[in-house]
Design a protein that fits this description.
The chain has 218 residues and is of the alpha+beta class. The chain has 5 helices and 12 strands. Helices cover 15% and strands 39% of the residues.
Length: 218
């Protein structure tokens, strides 16, 4: 489990094919204090298992599933990625609950300077628009961000200077592909409120403003 508060950046030093999967060798730009073989580290928002940890270097196995559903497979050697070590129960929850299980990818539609801030506009990922709400949370390449605006076509966020400095968003430009993880609580609530028969048939959720109003959520 993660919070989306990025601890630093990593540099992809080596990328090795392994059947349909890959092995990444990554160098962090911060100290991996008290490292544990097998610990989870989110790399661009993807929960991966660290092994062969030595100083700031570690290796991770990237499955074919992760390659097909995220932007990790497209990264060249030398690319920067956002890193976050797993949450401890005693830690502050500074962002929002992030599982590290990416729901899909999308691309940046526009980037606008707004004083010291940057506003980023993203294409709405296919099939995920129902999980976006204004002032709700979203993880973009593992970064916990607040949705400022959203509709069926796009969603927008405002990025503060600290986040720009600590993450890869400083270098991100129009057309770049990013990983998206929507609010996990929204997905669980949707499933629990969807009739069981509809879940078996993979039907579209029956949740709507009228449905919520009927049960007292106004």
């Amino acid at each position: 489990m993660f919070t989306g508060i990025i601890q630093g950046k990593g540099t992809l030093r080596e990328k090795i094919s392994s059947g349909g999967a890959m092995v990444f060798a990554i160098e962090a730009d911060f100290e991996l204090t008290a490292p544990e073989i097998g610990e989870s580290i989110a790399c661009n928002g993807v929960c991966l298992t660290a092994r062969e940890i030595s100083g700031r270097y570690f290796k991770v196995d990237v499955s074919s599933e992760s390659i097909s559903r995220t932007n990790l497979g497209w990264l060249p050697v030398g690319a920067k990625m956002n890193l976050e070590r797993a949450l401890r129960l005693s830690d502050r929850l500074g962002g929002h609950l992030v599982s590290g299980h990416v729901d899909g990818t999308t691309e940046i539609m526009d980037r606008q300077k707004d004083g010291d801030f940057v506003r980023l506009y993203f294409k709405m990922p296919s099939g995920l628009d129902r999980y976006f709400v204004e002032k709700g949370g979203v993880a973009v390449d593992g970064i916990s961000l607040t949705v400022n605006e959203c509709n069926e076509r796009f969603f927008a966020v405002a990025v503060i200077p600290h986040t720009l400095d600590m993450t890869t968003l400083m270098e991100r430009r129009k057309g770049d592909t990013v990983n998206i993880e929507v609010d996990m609580i929204g997905k669980y609530v949707e499933k629990m409120l969807t009739p069981y028969d509809d879940q078996k048939n993979n039907s579209v959720s029956k949740i709507s403003p009228a449905f919520l109003a009927r049960y007292g959520f106004e």
